[in-house]
Amino acid sequence: MTGPSTPTDPLFVDERERRRDPLRRMIALARPRSARFALGVLLGAAATGSGVALLGVAAWMLATAADHPSITALSVAVVATRALGVSKGVSRYMERLVTHDAAFRTLAEVRVRVYERLARTEPFGRFRSGDLVSRLVNDTESTLDLLVRGLTPPLVSVVTGGATVLFLTVVYVPGGMLLAGGLLLAGLAVPLMAAALSRGPGRREARARGTLSTTLVDTLQGAPDLIAYGAMDRQVAKVEEADAELTRVARRDAATLGLSAGAHALITGLTVWGALFLGVLAVEDGSIDATALAVLVLTTLAAFEIVAPLPAVAARLGAIRESGARLFGVLDTPPAITVDEERERDGGTPVIDPGAEASVRVEGLRVRYGPDEPWALDGIDLEIPAGATVAVIGPSGAGKSTLASILLRFRDPDGGRVEVGGTDITDRPADEVRGVVSGVPQDPHVFASTLRENLRLARPGADDEELWEALRRARLAHDVEAMPRGLDTRVGSHGLGLSGGMRQRLALARAVLAAPRVLVLDEPTAHLDPDTRDAVVEDLLSAARGFSTLLITHDLTGLDRVDRIYVIRDGRVVQSGTHEELLAAQGWYRSVGVR
């Protein structure tokens, strides 16, 4: 048995990494493509520099044209103007192509990491469904926003701005110093102001977006109950309140952007006027000529295009940082299941044979959901012989579903041992175990597709005959044959086109189609009426014949047909035996059975 996540886990994140700033961690995700982003920065600098140089050359050409320069000089200027115009467009296109390609590839890798983490941690109970959707979509895509708009433009500004200041310093030192001061104000002071003003609203925006998504999903999923209890108006009011909060935050963000744009325009204007004033004085005292004055003023004006994107980028950093924190809230969730990968690579652990009969042995199983939580299972011992049917029964909260989650590798035990076919399942990858152990949950999910596609989840390559055989074993074939479209019948969202009993039988057919050796039936009749429940239990037990079957339930329906029964209370086995033996003995089982 393995313990908590270790550094051999490819998704392991140590505590030091978790404490790092989310923005730095998001940028670090792009490290494998740092060369591409560096190329993007160079191309961006070429595009921006071409734009600045284009205006500078144009200023020189217009200013010197009145002096009737040589045709060679004018030709060179014309060719340079055309070349800079072409290079600006081509460089900008290439920069967008390279940076977006690298950013989208990084985003794809982030999505894969998120999905892998979800598959390893099963954290759906830790996040509300709407909030999880927001984290998977909006917060994950914030990585793209940061890499495209928050990483390349500042670096391009440093490279191009420095080169432009150096050029103007050569032309006229005071003009270069003035431009350096203006660029620092517009490209550093204004973005810092925008970042400070948007820090709080940015955090609230990401949270407000998640709240709105959560409320909307809750409203849609719970619409029937909300309408039945007359609570829809109150729920709609909650949606409107969440939307109003997001609108308020967006307005404040827009105000910050407007203030930043105004400050940028003011600094640009003052710097250009300053350059013109200094240039005129310099022309009067003979320090520079009129041509240099034109180049100085127009180049100064063009230079502020270099830092124009930065305030908007800085204003988004608060929201991006919060989105990153929410994203890493998923990625940093500790895995619920682990495998000793070094032992697996060494080949020291036997592989579970999916074709052999599989007995199940549970020894001293202990599970709890937190270090300060009580034991959900406290020293459970039970055995399912190959091909036998064993029931685990007990009141709600006894730990029955926790046992199912251990067998299906949804979490690791905190103590004890669980063997399938003589192999400790905690030594094997989850997918390998689930190729041998399958199950029917108490609330099976039915996708809004056809019966055929819902069945093929278990075995994508199954042909129609195999699908019908699974339906016959689950005693659902007759009902499907009566449907006009048969296997192509659409079942509706969450299987609303099917009855409760049919949904359970469909889940059973899906489990049978997977051809497991161990079948776990977790409260399969929890939401059914008594008549339907008796029929479904009969069908389940009949279809499970030949499997090593664990039936987890809270009532005694059909338990006279199982080979052995274990009664669990407060995480411990308090009784075991056959149906007749337990009815004859004093205890919880008899008290439930004679009611």
From TrEMBL:
Gene Ontology CC terms, in alphabetical order: plasma membrane
SMART domains named among the record's database cross-references: AAA (SM00382)
Keywords in alphabetical order: ATP-binding, Cell membrane, Membrane, Nucleotide-binding, Transmembrane, Transmembrane helix, Transport
Entries under SUPFAM superfamilies matching the protein: ABC transporter transmembrane region (SSF90123), P-loop containing nucleoside triphosphate hydrolases (SSF52540)
Domain named ABC transporter: residues: 360-595
Molecular function GO labels: ABC-type transporter activity; ATP binding; ATP hydrolysis activity; ATPase-coupled lipid transmembrane transporter activity
Residue stretches in coiled coil: none
Pfam families, per database record: ABC_membrane (PF00664), ABC_tran (PF00005)
Domain ABC transmembrane type-1: 38-319
GO BP of this protein: cell redox homeostasis; glutathione transmembrane transport
Cross-referenced InterPro entries: AAA+_ATPase (IPR003593), ABC1_TM_dom (IPR011527), ABC1_TM_sf (IPR036640), ABC_CydC/D (IPR014223), ABC_transporter-like_ATP-bd (IPR003439), ABC_transporter-like_CS (IPR017871), P-loop_NTPase (IPR027417), Type_1_exporter (IPR039421)
UniProt xrefs under PROSITE patterns: ABC_TM1F, ABC_TRANSPORTER_1, ABC_TRANSPORTER_2
Keyword Cell cycle: no
Cellular compartments annotated: Cell membrane
Topology with respect to the bilayer: Multi-pass membrane protein
Keyword Plastid among record annotations: no
Positions of transmembrane segments: 37-63, 69-86, 155-173, 179-197, 257-281, 293-317
Homology family: Belongs to the ABC transporter superfamily. Lipid exporter (TC 3.A.1.106) family.
PANTHER family to which the protein is assigned, alphabetical: ATP-BINDING CASSETTE SUB-FAMILY B, ATP-BINDING CASSETTE SUB-FAMILY B MEMBER 6
Protein's recorded name: Thiol reductant ABC exporter, CydC subunit
